[in-house]
Write a structure and sequence with these properties.
Length: about 450
């Protein structure tokens, strides 16, 4: 088998594979033998029909099986032999294979980028000082309320959208029809796929229309609109309001198992806050590192890899909403718009993950068996379960590899922090609220 690999882009390859006629004939004979033994042809005993008779009845099937088997087997072998990390379905092009002739096919596919990080230490980082006050306690309580919130459709025509409402709008643009959307979800004063719509829907009512000019930033996920402006009309088709439960003793019992009332719940929250706020401070610090890593180490990422990451993020959001009794399609009926909105965050997460993986490889940072056992013990203690039960459950769901990556990621962050300058500050600059895999509220 002869294999030629050429670069289409830095992350896309074209592979030309030539299969010798001897191998073509061998595979052809195997397929004929398999077919003749399985089919019944009138006038012949099973498995005894001559080859030309089998061909007369099953030529198209045999041709398809031959092409599929040659392409699948030889592509897989070529990828393995050349140590390629393929991240997309290959686009195959070939003529029908023929007996006694070499078979040639080409395949184009995306590969995982090979990264040699140039700068990943020596950063100037800021970490928020850990302080605890009433506002912190109230913030936890509010997030708990959001966790147990119910989503209700607004029917009152006089109701005006408030912050946090999900406003479903139709978007129309005469000059830019590619912006047209039906039933696009906008979180009022929260987020939107199109800049400015989250503010524009504030105070709007059912069936109300509005017009606005949109200014697209230079880094918007819609490449054709970057740095441009557009005039759009929006019309509200429905509004979904998140109704928060009352902060009373019954809510406290629901929010935390074993708690009898709000006073006890607040006490537990206070006990947990130091650890929680420290964790939040650490998360913000890690996000800084991710931003700096991406800025300092530019490279190309195949869109197929970003879309795969976006799909996993959406699946995670869907699972958390389902656990709250909410269906993703109810909040985001325009699935394509929601995926497009998620692409920017997925691109960022993909890039930072690849850089972190490269740094770990460069410095031989790994997750040991002892590290995994320690993490499993923590989970077991948290959920009051046996470590063996936790491990078995994770192994069955394939969660051990994900845990190992999380351990490696923590170690890489720690290495970067130890080799950078970290200054404590009272407040961090406010960051944009990107779609993320951990945006579903508190887990108190």
């Amino acid at each position: 088998m002869k294999v030629e690999i050429t670069d289409v882009t830095s992350t896309r390859k074209e592979m030309k594979v030539v299969v010798p006629k001897e191998e073509v004939n061998t595979v052809t004979n195997e397929i004929y033998k398999d077919v003749s033994q399985k089919v019944i042809i009138k006038g012949f005993r099973k498995g005894k029909a001559p080859r030309n008779v089998v061909k007369m009845y099953y030529a198209d099937y045999i041709q398809g099986e031959l092409s599929k088997k040659l392409v699948n087997d030889k592509f897989e072998q070529a990828v393995k032999d050349n140590e390629l990390f393929v991240v997309s379905m290959p686009e195959i092009n070939n003529d029908p294979p023929k007996e006694n002739e070499d078979f040639t096919f080409t395949a184009q596919f995306d590969i995982k980028p090979e990264i040699n990080p140039q700068k990943y230490i020596g950063f100037e980082l800021k970490k928020k000082k850990v302080t605890i006050g009433d506002e912190n306690i109230n913030d936890v309580l509010h997030r708990l309320q959001e966790t147990y919130a119910t989503i209700k459709d607004i029917e009152d025509p006089e109701y005006k959208a408030i912050q946090g409402d999900y406003v479903i709008v139709d978007v129309m643009s005469e000059d830019n029809p590619e912006l047209n959307r039906e039933r696009m979800t906008v979180e009022a004063r929260g987020r939107s796929a199109l800049p400015g719509l989250d503010e524009a829907v504030m105070d709007m009512s059912l069936a109300q229309e509005n017009e606005l000019d949109i200014e697209f930033p230079d880094d918007h996920f819609m490449e054709d609109m970057r740095g441009k402006s557009a005039h759009v009309r929006i019309k509200v088709s429905s509004i979904k309001h998140r109704e928060l439960p009352e902060l009373d003793d019954e809510f406290a019992k629901k929010a935390r198992q074993g708690v009898e009332g709000m006073d006890e719940l607040k006490k537990i929250i206070v006990e947990d806050l130091t650890e929680r706020i420290e964790a939040d401070s650490r998360t913000a610090l890690e996000r800084q590192i991710q931003d700096k890593l991406i800025e300092a180490n530019p490279f190309d990422v195949p869109e197929s890899l970003v879309r795969l990451q976006a799909g996993m993020m959406i699946q995670g959001i869907s699972q958390r909403l389902t656990a709250q009794g909410i269906q993703l399609q109810d909040l985001y009926p325009d699935a394509q718009a929601f995926q497009d909105e998620t692409m920017e965050s997925a691109d960022k997460l993909t890039r930072s993950s690849l850089i972190i993986e490269a740094v770990a490889k460069k410095h031989e940072i790994e997750a040991t068996d002892e590290d995994v056992a320690e993490e499993i013990d923590k989970l077991a203690a948290r959920y009051n379960m046996s470590p063996d039960v936790v491990r078995k459950g994770m192994e069955e769901k394939g969660g051990i590899d994900e845990m190992k990556y999380g351990i490696v990621e923590k170690k890489v962050f720690e290495y970067i922090i130890e080799n950078s300058e970290v200054n404590e500050v009272d407040e961090l600059e406010e960051e944009s609220d990107d779609t993320s895999t951990d945006s579903s509220g508190a887990d108190e």
